[in-house]
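Journal club side-thread
Mid-discussion, someone asked how the predicted structure for our own chain would compare to the paper's figures. Pasting it here so we can look after the session.
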Amino acid sequence: MTEYQLPIVVPDQIPLVDLEIMNQVHREEVVLINRLGVLLLDGLKQQSSNEAIDDCLQEWITHTRDHFDGENRMMAEHGFPPYSVHKGEHDQVLALIQRLNEQWLKHRELDELVKFIFVEWRNWFDGHVKSMDRVTAQFLARFIK
């Protein structure tokens, strides 16, 4: 069995961008994903309930949707040139998260969800913030304080 480490993202090691509103949303995201990570690992040991995982997972999905909608809106309002590329990545990741949630609710199998959260999402988040969000924030910081 793979050994998964908590926290998934160390809160004070989140890559920062030039727009504080984006940094704040990223901090909120990390709090939720780390809480979900605890529940998932406890679930693997039968120490957390499916309902607790359901609730936290739904809270994270809702936050992620709001997070992406907010960034998408700012990019559109201020004419960010690679808007469609950044939004496209948001759409792709949100669809994947929603698909994993549906599979979880149907089959109650934690392994795929745990692997995604601890490995794939973690790597995606770090890379996305350091690349797309960094460039987006540099652009948007000219318009938003």
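Post-session note: The chain has a mean pLDDT of 96.
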